[in-house]
Amino acid sequence: FKTFLLIMLPLSKPILATAALFAAFVSATAFAGDDRTISFDKLPEKAQQFIKQHFGDKVVSSVRQDTDWLGGDYDVRFVDGAEISFRHNGEWDDVECKDSQVPAAIVPEKIASYVTEKYPDSRIVEIDRDLRGYEIELSNDVKLKFDRKGEFTSIDK
Asked: In angstroms, rounded to a whole number, what is the distance separating the alpha carbons of residues 13 and 22?
């Protein structure tokens, strides 16, 4: 038993150190996010321009910044219920207009043509983009996925 302890004692220090580092990382990431209300002029310039260009007729009800160790993001809500999410650099990643429709100018032409052809009686009420491509939701609750080039990939009814 004494030999066992002499062998295990030096090994337990790196294990404990690793466990302590892991615990510190988990708690730091859990509490790193700071969600707070900010004024419109605190948004990145690119986000401000996007809103002025595509939502200039809408009234902003709130602007929230969620900061984290990756830089954070922003959520803008309008009085009519529309919402936009922006990345830390001001690039939009999600636009939701449930009571109206997403501005046509932000929908890639290929995607707009596909929707017009296949779903002529529906309108695009949400568009989400990421590194893989786009996901849109139509007014009839159909969700369509497209790759980065605007090619249709799948449907979720």
From this structure: 14
pTM here? Answer: 0.76
26 vs 77: CA distance, rounded Å = 31
pLDDT at position 18 is 44
Query: What pLDDT is attached to residue 7?
Result: 61
Q: Are 25 and 34 in contact (CB under 8 A)?
A: no
Q: How far is CA 96 from CA 11, 19, 21, 38, 125, in A?
A: 54, 42, 40, 20, 6
Q: Where are the alpha helices (DSSP H) in the chain?
A: 2-32, 45-55, 109-118
For the record, the structure tokens of 88 come out as 């830390």
Residues sharing a CB contact under 8 Å with residue 97, sequence separation 6 or more, in sequence order? 82, 103, 125, 126
Contact 124, 101 (CB under 8 A): yes
Separation in Å, CA 117 to CA 1, 123, 136, 156: 77, 12, 15, 18
Q: How far apart are CA 64 and CA 62, in angstroms?
A: 7
